[in-house]
Amino acid sequence: xxxxxxxxxxxxxxxxxxxxxxxxxxxxxxxxxxxxxxxxxxxxxxxxxxxxxxxxxxxxxxxxxxxxxxxxxxxxxxxxxxxxxxxxxxxxxxxxxxxxxxxxxxxxxxxxxxxxxxxxxxxxxxxxxxxxxxxxxxxxxxxxxxxxxxxxxxxxxxxxxxxxxxxxxxxxxxxxxxxxxxxxxxxxxxxxxxxxxxxxxxxxxxxxxxxxxxxxxxxxxxxxxxxxxxxxxxxxxxxxxxxxxxxxxxxxxxxxxxxxxxxxxxxxxxxxxxxxxxxxxxxxxxxxxxxxxxxxxxxxxxxxxxxxxxxxxxxxxxxxxxxxxxxxxxxxxxxxxxxxxxxxxxxxxxxxxxxxxxxxxxxxxxxxxxx
Length: 371
Ligand code: GLY
Known about the structure:
Number of strands: 13
Bound molecules: glycine
CATH topology of the largest domain: Rossmann fold
Low-confidence stretches: none
Largest sheet: 7 strands, mixed
C-alpha cells in the first residue's frame, strides 16, 4: 500500500478549468471529493445519476460511496489492465449502454485507473457518436495525466493505443484519498509522470519529490494535494493550448520515446508504465545534455529525483538493437520522422526531428542496455 495513513479530513478542492473542442470542463482536486460524489457532482452542475463503469477490485474499495450515483442498475464492472483494454471489452460496454437505454444526454462515470478511463472514454466517444463521460481516476498516474485531455482508446494485438479518439470529459474528479490503498509500486509509477512535469514545466516539482518523498508516499494531503493540483494545472494548460497534439502537447511525451520502446520489447510485462518512462527520461536527459540543451547539474537533479523514488526493474539484459527497432515503430514517428522531445534546461522542452540512431544507441547504453 502507498500508505495506511491517508488523510480523511477534506481539504478545500482546487478547480482547474480546461477548454476543449467539446466545451469547457473542470478538473477538481481535493480530498473527500470521491467519497461524497453527489455533493461533488451537484457543485459542478452535473447530474447525480449516471451509468458507473468500474473494475471489481476498484468497486470493492471505493464503490460504497458511488452506489447512490449508480442507482438500481448498479455498476458495470469490467476487467482493467492493458491486456483487457481491447475492442472486445468496449463491445461489452456498448451492450451495457444498450441494455440501460443510454441516449446522447446520458452520463457515464469512469471510476478506475487509466485503462478503465481509456476504455470507458472510448466507448462513450463512439456509442451513438458520443455520450458524456466523467473521469474519476483512482491511480496517481491517471489523476495527473491520462484522465485529463480527452485521449481515449484501446490496444490492438499489434500495439498499444492504436485505436482511439479525442473525447473530452464533462469533468475530472481527482481525490488524493483514494490513492492510499494503491500498491506502492503503482503509486510510484505515477510519481515518474509527476517528475516529468518538473522537467517540462515546473522544476520546483523535482525539489518537492526529492525532499518530501516520505510525506508523498504516506499520502499526506497537505503535500500530495497541491502536488497533484500543480501537475493537473500543467496538463490542463498544455491540452487547452494544443488538444490534438500538433505542437505543445508533444512536450508530455518527454521520456516516452525510449520508455515505450522498453515496454514494447518486454511485452508490457516487466515495467509499470511510469518505470519505463523513468528510464526514458534518464536517456532523453542524457541526449539533451550531449546537445548542450541541459547542463550536467540539471541532468543530475533529474537523476536524483528519479532515483529518490526507489528501485526500478533491471534493463541490463535488454538489447539496444531491439529497443531501436521498437523506437522506429512508435506512434511518434510522423512521415518517417521521429519527433523526439528533449529537455531545454529544467522547465521547458524542445522537439527535435534530427535525433540520430547513434545518439539513441549511446543513450540506451548510458541507462544500462547491452549491445
Ligand atoms: N499522456 C500524454 C497526453 O495526454 O498527451
